[in-house]
Specification:
The strands form 2 sheets. The protein has a 9-stranded mixed sheet. It is globular. Helix 5 crosses helix 13, helix 7 packs antiparallel against helix 8 and helix 12 packs antiparallel against helix 13. By secondary structure, the protein is an alpha+beta fold. The relative contact order is 0.17. The protein has 3 domains: 139 residues, Bira Bifunctional Protein, Domain 2 (BirA Bifunctional Protein, domain 2), CATH 3.30.930.10; 165 residues, BirA Bifunctional Protein, domain 2 (2-Layer Sandwich); 45 residues, no CATH class.
């Protein structure tokens, strides 16, 4: 027992220091005009789980309540904050918070399943590029003593790219759904750009009555369901493939990784052949101007077209992260982004442009603190 006491004392001391750092970060956000709020640790699971990315959804702690149905330990703060705001918050609004979030770990026992976040969220539709710049510049200023590398991206460019493709709505919905899953997106893109094979399957789809001579109907699926699926496959087989040159342009866009001004220039060149992405690039240019106006050295800021594709699926615009290059073993110290579509879902059609981010105070302390 005596040998265990120093371990527990150290753990308790670390927890107290991390909580103190989280509260200090929240106070910095309050100084920027944010209202400090508290979100319940237990959240209703049925609606919220569908709003998170695949990674977090698979790692949420979910339980059942006889009266309230499925509940989960909050895996982040943004969704509860948006829900609270859409239930009656005024616009513009700025919120901040500090508290625990919970993520199951099934592969790495050294990775924390409970840790603290401190966050800042802005609901303001007057000038979205400036709101993006406000959040990023604030995080960069707070984290400056740690000399972190900042990465930025824009999911809005990718969604605009998919939305403008000359493809069926069904194909575009599938690609849009898998923007956040790069491997699956690649598989779908390859499939949609390949002409259908002339094989036995194609003959079956072309048959006037594919059930002719098939014998008794068995199994769980009804004939109407099978017919519906066959019709869907026929439509897919009849669809024109996405042209190879368009796929090449998509690959070129996804590969863009440069300092922001050069990235924008490269993307403009690609947009000569993909003109429907120009409005999204205009928003990127406006954001770059807003960042510069707030003192961010845009010429030294990294932009990656694919950045954010493995993060939470509710981000639909600007995304950013701050990384300790001397500690590649650590996750990002801070992350954030724009999530306008999330407010539309939780607002039952009413949308309020919103952007925010979180800092992990435990990682801040691991890197020596901000003092």
């Amino acid at each position: 027992m005596t040998d265990a006491r120093p371990f527990y004392a150290a753990t308790d001391a670390t927890r107290r220091a991390t909580r103190a750092e989280a509260l200090r970060l929240r106070a910095l956000f309050e100084a920027e005009g944010a209202v400090a709020i508290e979100a319940g640790i237990l959240q209703p699971a049925e609606t919220l789980l569908d709003l998170y990315g695949e990674d977090i959804r698979a790692r949420a702690y979910v339980t059942s309540d006889a009266l309230r149905g499925e509940q989960m330990l909050r895996p982040d703060f943004t969704v509860p904050v948006v829900q609270m705001h859409m239930d009656g918050g005024a616009e513009p609004a700025r919120y901040c918070y500090a508290g625990e979030v919970f993520r199951r770990q099934e592969e790495d026992e050294d990775r924390a399943n409970e840790y603290l976040q401190a966050g800042f969220e802005v609901f303001d539709g007057a000038n979205p590029p400036d709101a993006d710049a406000e959040v990023f510049a604030l995080f960069q200023r707070i984290l400056a003593p740690l000399n972190l590398r900042a990465a930025t991206g824009d999911i809005g460019i990718l969604t605009a790219l998919v939305a403008g493709l000359n493809a069926s709505d069904k194909r575009k919905r599938a690609l849009m759904r898998h923007i956040w899953r790069p491997r699956r997106f690649r598989t779908l893109l390859d499939r949609f750009s390949t002409p259908p094979a002339d094989d036995a399957r194609a003959a079956l789809l072309a048959a006037a009555d594919p059930f002719a001579g098939s014998g008794p109907e068995i199994g769980l699926r009804r004939r109407a369901e099978v017919e519906e699926r066959l019709q869907s496959l026929r439509e897919e087989a009849a669809a024109d493939p996405i042209p190879t040159h368009v796929v090449d342009l998509i690959d070129a866009l996804l590969a863009v990784r440069e300092k922001m001004p050069f990235a924008l220039e490269h993307l403009r060149d690609i947009a000569v052949d993909l003109p429907w992405i120009n409005p999204a690039l205009d928003r990127l240019a406006a954001r770059a101007d807003a960042l510069s106006a707030r003192g961010v050295d845009v010429d030294a800021l990294d932009f990656e077209a694919s950045y954010g594709r493995t993060h939470m699926e509710y981000y639909d615009g600007f995304v950013f992260g701050f990384y300790a290059e001397t500690r590649p073993d650590l996750p990002p110290v801070a992350t954030g982004g724009r999530y306008d579509a999330l407010t539309r879902v939780l607002g039952r059609g009413r949308e309020i442009p919103a952007v925010g981010g979180v800092i992990r105070p435990g990682l801040v302390l691991d890197l020596g603190g901000l003092a």
